[in-house]
Structures are given as C-alpha cells and as structure tokens.
Fold:
Amino acid sequence: ALVWGARKAIDALPPKLGLRLEVGTLRLHLFHPIELRDVHFEVTNPPASRTDARAALIALRMNSLAEIFFGDGRVFRDLVVEGLHGTFDFRKPALIPQPMPSFTREQQEQVAALTLRFLPKKLDLGNCDAVFLADGQSYTITGLNGHFDEAASGVLRIDKALIEAGSIHQEILHGQAVTAWKDGAMYLSDLRLRDQIAVRDFVANFVNIGGVSLDWELGAYGGTVRGNVVFGEENHQPAIDASVAIVNLPLKPIPDLIALP
Structure:
C-alpha cells in the first residue's frame, strides 16, 4: 500500500510544475531503508533547462522513532546515491518559472530548522558524474566518490573535473579532499588543483538563512581568492547573488591562473 501510494503521488505531479520524475523500482517498508532504483529526474519547463539526471540507486534510512521524537528530531540517518549521471542547470533562463514566497527573518529560520530535520546525518556518493551549468559557467565532474559523516571526517575523490568560467579553463585530475558534514553544511578542504593552486575550504550550507549558500577560499601563488554564491528569492522569483574577493594575488601568474591563450 505504501509503494502504491508513493507511485500515485509521483504520477500526480502536475505538469505545470515543469518536473518529471520516473522511478523504475521502489521499495518502501516501515523500519527498512527506502530504496529507489533507476531514477530519472528532468525539468521540462522552461524548455531552456538542460537539467536531466539519472541515478542507479537512491537509498534513505530513517532514524529510530525514539531519536525522532525524543532525540534531536532528525528524521533520516543516512543517504546513499550511486551511479548518478546528469546535468543540473542553474542558468537564469533555465530556472523553473514558479512564484516563490517571501519570508520574514523568523520564517526563514523556521524553514532552515525544518530543512535540517530532514537532512541525513551521513551521505555516501558513489560513481557519480555531473555537469553544473550557470550563466557563463560550467563545472564538469566525473568519477566522484565521497563520504560525508557528522560523526567523523571523510574523503572525496574525483577522477576528473573541468572548470570553465569566462576565460578560466582549468582541469583537475585525480583530485582528493577531506570532507565533513555538520548541521546541514557540507565541507571540503585541501583539494589540490595544480601546482601552487588549491581549494583551502569549500562550504555548501543547505540551511543558510535566506537560501542555500556556497562559500570557498582558493589559495593561489601566495594569494587568496574568496567566493560566495547564495541561491535565494527576489520579488517572488528565484535569484542568485554572487561575489568574489581577491587578496594579495600577484599579477604575474594571473594569465596562467585563468588559462588565457
């Protein structure tokens, strides 16, 4: 009955939302991991969107009822995603044209607290390939395997990554970083890109007040490049705010850093 109800809910997604979700096999039992196999997710509206992803397996394990009702209130213990391959499009013409509610500061805090309750305490990613698109930018990652755990540090490994942003064209081979996962935020550190260039810190905060935020600090040739992106709302529409700061970066290696021809 649970599986039947879940499939009916998936099939009932209204077309005007611009989302299509297909699940090959669904396993849904109380007190057992929720398993979805051969998952296909696609954004169909707006037509400009290239978001289209497939996953061989998505498995979600719940915490015990005692932990949920008498502990910290967190619903899920761990999430496993295997064989994810797809494109995720964050360009402005590709954002779903649905009005977004405007929240007060207090309401934003409530939304963040509710989001945290449903985020897992542990996340494992296996054999994942992804392309992330933004206005004038693309980030391609292949062969990603990562372990994120609130109880201990982990490791993220990638076979290859390609960063293309304006005149920047950088390729990373066999990258490895230290990971952490705490209170709704994902942390990476010490990811070496090339000689004298490394990502010192990267933080993806999924419970940031005002919208999901990305922050990073890049060390390059003795200087520092800091960046911040917030996915929020403005005038009831999706909005992206971004900023970059450069500190003590010598001028001579800049052409090499941004891979100018």
